[in-house]
Design goal:
Pathway: Protein modification; protein glycosylation. The chain folds into three domains: about 1-240, Spore Coat Polysaccharide Biosynthesis Protein SpsA, Chain A; about 255-380, no CATH class; about 390-473, no CATH class. About 45% of the residues lie in helices and about 10% in strands. It has 14 helices and eleven strands. Helix 9 (about 255-285) runs antiparallel to helix 10 and helix 9 packs antiparallel against helix 12 (about 355-380). The radius of gyration is 30 Å and the shape is elongated. The protein starts with a strand and ends in a 30-residue tail after the last strand.
């Protein structure tokens, strides 16, 4: 796809050059769609003429401006298994197009982007644009924890099945569309492939830098706020595409334990500091036991909320009340430990100093913290991946029943290149039809783990239309 606005001069040379490159070097079927964003010059007529002259070119007209709006409209209506776009000025070297889409065609990645900020990229552009681009990506890294290097490079691709789930969640219709799409994809755990590109900036670009930068910063604030409040339904995108080793059941390896420990320690350290400050404040007008109970209560509510979101990754408001109620039980256990420690200190010394009280409370809180983590992990925020594991239905037959031909006689399977069939071995259809079969359910990955022994399975392709009839593979 090529989004355009008032590009009557550059559109035809761009399309002709792109079409010639694809015809000469691209091994897959392709289609070029020119998406006109409410142009007021002769751009629509140029696009229609190109579509009439070149079979692989299509023309699409929108009555409203916005690159994001055009991307959503064209990509949502496309039947191509891989969707890509590039700017009409062809600033990116076209030799990067095949490396861009190859990881998507193979199924290895979900999205792919060109990066002008990679060390191996060769970029020619002015100091002003270079400074703005790097500053913007630094803002994304600092505010939205983005790990991709170049959000605004006009050279991106996405698998259609991913786009169908991701695009409805993207609100922006302008230049921030790319950034929002990438941030949501990354937060959902999708795989983003980066391709170093050679880039020569177009000095005649019609992009308004100041307005674009202002709109982008507004978008960063909106997306950051939505992520902080958990209002985005990212569970729709939580790695539904392809196999992910993090979704496999591994014995003796608790999932996400290292990350949870780090998050819990950070939250615990801040909570302990908050608790001690509260205790010192309450202690100025109440007894030690009352100050301890009040400080622990307030800090426990904050601790449960922070661990829920940051340590165990629970988003949204669902189950928040139940989690806080369970957190109160954990709080009660911590209260018993700390109050017992204060009582023991009081019995040992009739008038302990404030520093001694704090030292005893810190030791008691360390013990309570270890217990709190174990209870949070096992009871309050348990890992429920086992309950969400999808099952696949497969027909199988033990090897003792004889050879299995999955879809009929092998001699009837033609070679897609037009050669002779793969095998002309005679086939007894009667004995095949009478062979007993059984249907069962198994968890994805069991066959790879060899827990099924000798068996033959018949599985339907995940994306049966994602193939090129010209490609024999």
């Amino acid at each position: 796809m090529i989004p355009v606005y008032n590009e009557e001069k550059d559109l035809q040379p761009c399309v002709l050059r792109l079409h010639e490159h694809l015809e000469r070097t691209f091994p897959y079927a392709f289609r070029i769609t020119v998406a006109d964003n409410a142009s007021t010059d002769s751009t629509p007529r140029v696009a229609e003429r190109l579509a009439a002259e070149i079979p692989e070119v299509r023309s699409f007209r929108l009555e409203q401006k916005g690159r994001g709006r055009a991307l959503r409209a064209v990509w949502s209506a496309s039947d191509a298994p891989v969707l890509a776009y590039m700017d009409v000025d062809l600033s990116t070297d076209l030799n990067a197009l095949l490396p861009l889409v190859a990881p998507l065609i193979s199924g290895h990645s979900d999205l792919a982007i060109g990066s002008r900020l990679s060390r191996s990229s060769r970029v020619v552009r002015g100091a002003k644009r270079e400074f703005i681009s790097r500053s913007y990506n630094l803002i994304l890294r600092g505010s939205l924890q983005a790990r991709f290097s170049d959000a605004q490079c006009g050279f991106k691709a996405i698998r259609r099945d991913v786009a169908q789930a991701l695009l409805p969640l993207v609100e922006d219709t302008g230049w921030f569309f790319d950034t929002e799409m990438l941030v949501l994809a990354e937060r959902a755990g999708l795989r983003i492939h980066e391709v170093p590109v050679d880039w020569v900036d177009d000095p005649d670009s019609t992009v308004h830098i100041v307005k674009t930068a202002t709109d982008d910063l507004k978008g960063v604030w909106r997306v950051g706020r939505a992520l902080a409040t958990g209002s985005l339904p990212l569970d729709r995108l939580a790695r539904p595409f392809g196999d992910d080793p993090r979704d496999r059941d591994l014995t003796d390896v608790p999932g996400g334990l290292a990350r949870q420990l780090v998050g819990f320690c950070v939250v615990g350290g801040l909570s302990t500091l908050f608790y001690l400050l509260l205790y010192s404040a309450f202690r100025s007008f109440s007894g030690a036991q009352i100050a301890n109970a009040l400080a622990l209560l307030v800090s426990a509510v904050a601790n449960t909320a922070a661990n829920r979101r940051l340590t165990f990754g629970v988003r949204g408001r669902g189950g928040a009340v139940r989690h806080q109620a369970q957190g109160m039980v954990v709080f009660g256990i911590g209260l018993v430990l700390t109050s017992g420690s204060l009582a023991a200190l009081k019995a040992a010394s009739s008038d302990p100093s404030h520093s001694t009280e704090l030292a005893v409370l810190i030791a008691a809180n360390l013990a309570a913290t270890v217990l709190r983590f174990l209870l949070f992990r096992a009871w309050v925020f348990p890992d429920r991946r086992d309950e969400r594991t999808s099952h696949v239905v497969a027909s199988h037959r033990p090897a003792s029943h004889g050879p299995v031909v999955p879809y009929g006689p092998v001699s009837q399977v033609p070679d897609p290149r037009g050669h002779a069939p793969f095998d002309q071995t005679p086939f007894d259809q009667t004995s095949y039809d009478q062979t007993p079969y059984e249907t069962t359910q198994f968890r994805a990955g069991e066959a790879a783990d060899r827990t099924w022994g000798d068996s033959t399975m018949q599985l339907q392709a995940v994306r049966p239309h994602d193939h090129d009839p010209r490609n024999a593979r």
